[in-house]
């Protein structure tokens, strides 16, 4: 993650920290995180892009997303906010725009929705949300799982019609298990 | 607490920051300084109103005459005749000269103006001077603009019966950040504080957003999102913008612009009428200037007439024994300026592509600016955009009205009827990045990025044990770094010795809503959580006059010893 650099920036000058990056645990070297910054950064900053836009439903239509963006922009754009809250509103608007940019693009939105649902299926929201990494890990585990399942299927069939080799392997297997 | 009415702005530092809100916010006025004409407008509490000078003019010529002790501009001065502007004593077309160096082709084109524009072609500011009693009196574009702005300011103060300090100025899309600092300098010289510098078509876009919002209020229009293309061409510049508008919010999707305009049409036409005119007038005696002025007025007049008629008779005695007597038709005019019109077309297409918008998606097509009266321009825009042109705007007043609206919104004024429930979400007209990978330009903030914005990129060293790196910041879209506008440079020092490619140099660019650019750079080593040297924070641009040399000098002195490369993206 780019956290350490950004958080030190934000210590020096508060407006530079767009989002609470400093709270994120840091496990990955800077390099990898940076190469994915376009996606992962946005997720660092907010738990849910739909919530950033004040949308209740992940099923919101494109029109609703656009409308929400405009309504929120009218509240948080630094031009319409009190000058004393400029830093805060700038940070808020940058976050808002990042959310809008992802959700208004059909491809990016689908990707995001996929990551969002995989996160939800795992239950609690993890504090270390490198989803690209998580996503590929999930996919890999699913594939392993699937391979095992198929292989098991074949095992069950071995008794009847499998090759000699696989029958022998199955036999060996069961022998090792028994012993 | 009384605030001083007139303050001198500091050279480069943070005068651009808004003050903490006063009890009664002062409404910023909108100013449109055109290459040829200028105007002032203000939100009067219920609508935008254009201010008039003592001669009841809303649009005033942009020029300053150095005839007498005190120079006078087109706001207060009354020209007895157009020719008076062309005696060598008046300086005009300042917008084409400000912030440019003497190697710039636009400066070279300005050498045919009837005052002195001297170039040495070494990358410094051009020398400009006005002829006063047979003496070339030197001045600068900033000074001329400031004299003019003071006149506008006095005019507004007299009418509004209050001091004026805050302004929103409309500017061409293609202006570099260095040019913007020159505009700010001119305003500071005139005692004005720039609240916003607004690209002209985005000012028009804001006016359009207000009109659409008004129609929704009046139940005449649908509240749905509208996509508009705005084409603005004046005497000096051509600008295009694509905006998406809904609910009073104008979101700028893309911008494109170039320093082409009516002045180029005029010069091409003069060349057509008198092929070797530049040579004839190069000595710039009083007689030559006089002839040049006569030809200029006659040509300008002919071009204006060709907007409404097919042919025009030109008959002008240049006073030096030569006389031009010729009939010119519209087709000739269009052929002579074919390249300019092609460029206009390419700007529109670029803008549509950048916005990822098809011509069929456009709701409205708005053409404004002095050149919007030229039939060829109108037809060109119509044919590319496959639409009839929007009719709800005065082409000469739209930009200043938009600037005045922005002035009211940015000053925190609200309107009980919701007429000021408006917002412009701006985009960067040019990419900003640094020199890396040899002499390549690596954009960190790409063109058409929504503002405010914050972007960063990681670079690394090219030499083993490289302790210093040079960050050279450019603005533009050209692939080669030196073909872009230099904004500034600084060095990061004290990088711990490490093999090349190991230290991570993070460069971050931060643009706030008032378009202030800050460049931050820090060094990290893999595994460390903290930057190894203090982070550099630089407000850009930092370059001053003579900046044309800097990059070259840096390269000569340091070669590749302080270079950077981008870190390969690992997916």
Automatic annotation (TrEMBL), chain A:
Record-linked Gene3D superfamilies: DnaJ domain (1.10.287.110)
Lineage: superkingdom: Eukaryota
Gene Ontology CC terms: chloroplast
Record PROSITE patterns: DNAJ_2
Residue stretches of biased makeup (Basic and acidic residues): 170-179
Region listing for Disordered, in residue ranges: 156-179
Record's signal peptide: none
Pfam family, one: DnaJ
InterPro entries reported for this sequence: DnaJ_C/III_chloroplastic, DnaJ_domain, J_dom_sf
Every J domain range: 48-116
CDD domains hit by this protein: DnaJ
Protein's recorded name: J domain-containing protein
Species of the source: Corchorus capsularis (Jute)
From TrEMBL, chain B:
Region (Disordered): 1-21
Family note: Belongs to the heat shock protein 70 family.
Keyword Membrane: no
Pfam families reported for this sequence: HSP70
InterPro entries in the record: ATPase_NBD, HSP70_peptide-bd_sf, Hsp_70_fam
A single GO molecular function term of this UniProt record: ATP-dependent protein folding chaperone
The protein's name: Heat shock protein 70 family
Keywords carried by this UniProt record: ATP-binding, Nucleotide-binding, Stress response
Cleaved signal peptide residues: none
KW Nucleotide-binding (keyword) present: yes
Gene3D superfamilies reported for this sequence: 3.30.30.30, 3.30.420.40, Actin, Chain A, domain 4 (3.90.640.10), Substrate Binding Domain Of DNAk, Chain A, domain 1 (2.60.34.10)
């Amino acid at each position: 993650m780019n956290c350490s650099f950004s958080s030190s920036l934000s210590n020096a000058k508060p407006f530079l920290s767009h989002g609470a990056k400093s709270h994120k645990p840091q496990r990955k070297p800077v390099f990898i995180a940076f190469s994915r910054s376009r996606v992962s950064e946005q997720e660092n900053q907010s738990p849910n892009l739909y919530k950033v836009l004040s949308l209740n439903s992940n099923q919101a239509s494109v029109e609703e997303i656009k409308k929400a963006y405009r309504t929120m922009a009218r509240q948080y754009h630094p031009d319409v906010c009190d000058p004393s809250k400029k830093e805060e509103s700038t940070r808020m608007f940058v976050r808002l725009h990042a959310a809008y940019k992802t959700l208004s693009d059909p491809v990016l939105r689908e990707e995001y929705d996929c990551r969002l649902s995989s996160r939800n299926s795992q239950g609690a929201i993890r504090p270390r949300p490198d989803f690209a990494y998580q996503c590929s890990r999930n996919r890999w585990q699913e594939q392993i799982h699937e391979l095992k399942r198929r292989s098991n299927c074949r095992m069950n069939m071995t008794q009847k019609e499998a090759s000699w080799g696989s029958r022998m392997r199955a036999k060996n297997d069961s022998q090792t298990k028994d012993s | 607490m009384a605030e001083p009415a007139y303050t001198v702005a500091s050279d480069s530092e943070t005068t651009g920051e808004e003050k903490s809100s006063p009890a009664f916010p002062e409404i910023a006025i909108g100013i449109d300084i055109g290459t040829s004409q200028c105007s002032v407008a203000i939100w009067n509490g219920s609508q935008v109103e254009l201010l008039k000078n003592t001669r009841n003019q809303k649009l005033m010529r942009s020029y300053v005459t150095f005839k007498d002790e005190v120079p006078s501009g087109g706001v207060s001065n009354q020209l007895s005749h157009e020719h008076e502007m062309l005696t060598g004593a008046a300086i005009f077309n300042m917008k084409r000269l400000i912030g440019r160096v003497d190697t710039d082709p636009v400066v070279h084109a300005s050498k045919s103006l009837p005052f002195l524009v001297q170039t040495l072609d070494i990358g410094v500011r051009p020398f400009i001077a006005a002829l006063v009693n047979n003496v070339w009196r030197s001045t600068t574009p900033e000074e001329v603009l400031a004299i003019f702005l003071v006149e506008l300011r006095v005019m507004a103060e007299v009418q509004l019966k209050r001091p004026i300090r805050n302004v929103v100025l409309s500017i061409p899309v293609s202006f570099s950040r260095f040019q913007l600092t020159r505009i700010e300098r001119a305003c500071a010289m005139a005692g004005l504080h720039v609240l916003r510098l607004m690209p002209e078509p985005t000012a028009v876009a804001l006016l359009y957003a207000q009109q659409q919002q008004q129609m929704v209020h009046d139940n005449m229009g649908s509240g749905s999102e509208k996509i508009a293309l705005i084409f603005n061409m004046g005497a000096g510049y051509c600008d295009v913008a694509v905006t998406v508008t809904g609910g009073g919010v104008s979101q700028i999707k893309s911008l494109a612009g170039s320093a082409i305009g009516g002045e180029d049409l005029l010069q091409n036409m003069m060349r057509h009428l008198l092929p070797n005119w530049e040579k004839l007038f190069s000595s710039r005696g009083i007689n030559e200037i006089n002839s040049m002025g006569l030809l200029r007025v006659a040509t300008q007049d002919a071009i204006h007439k060709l907007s409404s008629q097919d042919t025009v008779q030109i008959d002008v005695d240049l006073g030096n024994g030569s006389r031009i007597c010729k009939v010119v038709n519209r087709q000739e005019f269009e052929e002579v300026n074919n390249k300019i019109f092609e460029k206009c077309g390419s700007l529109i297409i670029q803008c549509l592509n950048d916005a990822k918008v098809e011509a069929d998606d456009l709701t409205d097509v708005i053409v404004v600016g002095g050149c919007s009266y030229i039939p060829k321009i109108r037809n060109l825009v119509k044919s590319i955009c496959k639409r009839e042109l929007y009719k709800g705007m005065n082409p000469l007043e739209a930009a200043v009205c938009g600037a005045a609206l922005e002035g009211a919104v940015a000053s925190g004024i609200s309107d009980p009827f919701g007429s000021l429930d408006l917002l412009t979400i701006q985009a960067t007209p040019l990419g900003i990045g640094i020199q890396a990978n040899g002499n390549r330009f690596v954009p960190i903030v790409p063109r058409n990025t929504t503002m405010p914005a914050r972007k960063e990129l990681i670079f690394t060293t090219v030499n083993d044990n490289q302790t210093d790196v040079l960050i050279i910041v450019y603005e533009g879209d050209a692939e080669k770094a030196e073909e872009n506008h230099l904004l500034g440079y600084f060095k990061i020092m004290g990088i711990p010795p490490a093999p090349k490619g190991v230290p991570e140099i993070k460069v971050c660019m931060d643009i706030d809503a008032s378009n202030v650019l800050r460049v931050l750079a820090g060094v990290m080593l893999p595994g460390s959580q903290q930057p190894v040297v203090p982070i550099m924070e630089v407000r850009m641009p930092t370059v001053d006059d003579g900046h044309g040399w800097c990059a070259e000098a840096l390269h000569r002195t340091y070669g590749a010893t302080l270079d950077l490369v981008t870190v390969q993206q690992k997916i």
